Amino acid sequence: MSQLIDSFGRKIEYLRLSVTDRCDLRCFYCIPKGFKGFTEPEDRISLDDYVRLVRLFSELGVSKVRMTGGEPLIRPDLPDMVRKIGALPKIDDLSLSTNATRLAQHAKVLRESGVSRVNVSLDTLNPDVFREITQGDLEPVLQGLQVAKTAGFRPIKINMVVMRDLNLHEVGDMVDYCLENRFTLRFIETMPVGEAGQKAKDRYVSLDEIKKSLEQRFEMEPAKMKGAGPAKYLKIIGQRLKIGFITPMSQHFCETCNRVRLSSEGTLYLCLGQSDKLELRPLIQQGLSDDEIKSAILEAIQNKPEKHEFNSNPSQVVRVMSMTGG
Ligand code: SAM
Which of 11, 71, 168, 208 supports an S-S bond with 23, CB 3.0-4.6 Å? Predict the structure, then answer.
């Protein structure tokens, strides 16, 4: 077998790269307060080795790559990485997840280097609430989004983690903001990933609640979206806005999971919510050939877990989200 098909018959076509586990924000549900366990530069694999691994995945059937983290834009060699991954013949979709704090400076270069789509995390339009959630400033993020719009990314998706007694009341404002700016809006349920994710459990809101409240305000119909992934989309009738619902908790989508994740240290994580992994760095250091590394990847894919256990085992602390690549 030369393609990535796991033991449940799922075809793996999508690789998410946690290009760094570090971030310039501190969302309380993502990175634990005072966290010190970030990887050191000497633990990372080189850019060329990282690109080599992506190429091997692409030769095994991966065609979609997303750079995430941590915050990808704090990695100084990101434009180089984008150019090199974008030049791989079998990668036809290269995208980025960012908090947009530095997007204004980087948007143009990234667009020119081959990133076609960006997802931006934005949980609130209120600077005080933004600071409470992230410990950072909202203004550069809003500026970054405006620059991204002019740089020509299509679509620009806003990811909003909805949380009770924090930003739930802003759902309507976010809809208006996305309508005005022609962004796509996606709501996400909090997941108990890592120690920080556990802390957010009491803020959890089932997205069914949001959907019902939006249906009272708008007439909506099911919509299709390119690269929709696990999100289910609705469209406001008569408007351009599409709204996605990502429901890992209330309606998991593990049976259609088509992705694995690769950290900056060369660790292949087979599931966001489980510990199963393969360390690829030692294989590179031992000088294994492309075919030998591909065989190791193919074997590891057979161990991809059937599903996460966020509901049945919510206290299971896996890793810090930024290490796996949210
Ligand atoms: N820094 C980039 C960004 O902000 O998009 C990429 C990494 S960030 C970890 C990716 C996404 O994971 C963000 O949309 C963030 O809100 C989400 N996320 C992090 N921890 C989460 C949690 N416990 N539950 C749900 N979503 C989470």
Answer: 71
